[in-house]
Amino acid sequence: MEHEMRLDPAPFRMIKRGEKTIELRLYDEKRRKIAVGDTIVFTETETGERIRVIVTDLHVFPTFSELYRALPLSECGYTEAELETASPDDMLAYYSLERQRQYGVVGIGIARL
User: Fold this and answer.
1) 63 with 100: CB under 8 angstroms?
2) Domain total in the chain
3) Alpha-carbon gap, residue 63 to 82, rounded angstroms
C-alpha cells in the first residue's frame, strides 16, 4: 500500500540525504493503516518535490515522552547540535498531549527507495 504525507523542508532534506530514518507522527486512523513493507511518498511543503520511501519498522508508544526515551533521536530528525536540547515537548507544536494520549504516537522506520 502507498501512503502520502507532507513534510516541511528541513526534515524532507534530512530524509533525502539519508540522515533521518524515523518519521514521527500521531498514531491516528491514517497512520494505523501503515504496515511494514508499505511505501510512503513525502511531498515537500514549499517546493512540491516528492520522495518515496519504504516502511521498515513501526515503533508505537503512548506519548512522545516514551518514544524519545526509547528511540535514537539522531535518526528522528535531530542534528548532533540539537541532541542535547531535544525534548518531547518539541512535538507539541504539531500534536497536543491530549491527542497523543487519545491516539498514541508512532516512529515510522523508513529507508529510501
Assistant:
1) yes
2) 1
3) 20
pLDDT tens per residue across span 6-38? 999 999 999 999 999 999 999 999 999 999 999
CATH code for the domain in which residue 14 is found: 2.30.130.30
Cell triple for 56: 521498515
* Range list of H helices, 17-113: 29-32, 64-70, 97-103
3-state SS string over 64-87?
Answer: HHHHHHHCCHHHCCCCHHHHHHCC
Best CA proximity match to 25, nearest among 5, 46, 54, 45: 5
Domain span at residue 97?
2-112
The per-residue pLDDT for range 84-98, each reduced to its tens digit, is 999 999 999 999 999
What type of residue sits at position 88?
P
Q: Which amino acid is at 46?
A: E
Grid cell, residue 94, equals: 504539531
Q: Is 72 buried (19+), middle (13-18) or exposed (0-12) by CB count in 10 A?
A: exposed
